[in-house]
User: Fold this.
Amino acid sequence: MQDIIITNARLIDPELGESTGSLFIRNGLISDAFDADENTQVIDAGGLCLAPGIIDIGVKVGEPGERHKESFTSAGRAAAAGGVTTIVTRPDTDPVIDTPEILEFVARRASAVAQVRVLPMATLTKGREGREMTEIGFLQDAGAVAFTDADHVITNTRVYSRALTYAKSLGALVIAHVQDPGLSVGAAATSSAFASLRGIPAVSPMAERMGLDRDIALLEMTGARLHIDQITTARALPALRRAKENGLDITAGISVHHLTLNDLDVADYRTFFKMTPPLRAEEDRLAAIAAVAEGLIDIICSMHTPQDEESKRLPFEVAASGAVGLETLLPASLRLFHAGHLSLVQLFRALALNPAKRLGLDSGRLRIGAPADLVMFDPDAPFVLDRFSLESKSKNTPFDGARLQGRVIGTWVGGTRIFGGNPDA
Assistant:
């Protein structure tokens, strides 16, 4: 593998901070050896930002069963175009990933066609039905990096506590979706006067707090490792803070959509803005941003959920939830930087370093010996997003027609450039 030197770069190191300098790549790893020769490829970054590649937890890919929505090939291209070098895929496929055989098929398929690293998750209960836990040990041996029923809440606390206890014995990470299912069923918006005026069935923000309180109690009882896929309300943050202060092994994430959009964005009944959980009030959005800034919320993700036109072009309350986000994760996140809420270092702690730490990966940093999974980007480059230009098969993005700042110039995985046509750009 050819040695590479990237010079004149604005280095965004989530561990050491921001600096200007060069980065050397040898054998697919970040190296401190600068013994360049005539065979070394020299790339002048021209003052552009160079950061660890994004690690995106909670990506939905349609294989198996729904390749028309997203395949590993299209998801890999979309991730590369968005500076995402590792995708952690959800198991809520058709069929669900609840056996080693299905998991191994997915892993082989992803390895064969995806340009980026793919780490699959498996379900915590069989069929995501919440009645019987999966064979966590066998699935872990087959390559599952975490266990989750995605947006299905396990209502049987006995089953859930047993699964957490067993996961604890194996050191397995469990990812939970915290919503009270009784309150949340059928809801398409967050309770407010606005939702009432629009006639949209809504759910109280307390549904998230109630779900989190239950999961924290079970976590305290079992001592497991737990990651909350999304914390989106101000009312849930004190409970999360207490759990961390009490020494529980808990982390939390949030989607970029909940950090950059609010419940008023559904005013025109545009179903591309329908999410799970629903978009929140502006006060919740600002509280969540502050929580990311201080590290209370650890991870920013895309919660990439491709949906076809037929499932989105329906009345708002019955349309499918979710949005694609692999290509828009970085430019949408940069809204927080340009607004002065987060520095680039803080941003990449949440996008790269913290996901790597939670999953036990060596990537997500610019440390010597780390994999050369990198993204080079211009944080100030403006553009208007056209959803039909996205690499994803599905085009359900709420940012269609939005003015964004921040273009990916190059993406590397293991020292190999997978995006960016001009090697000297």
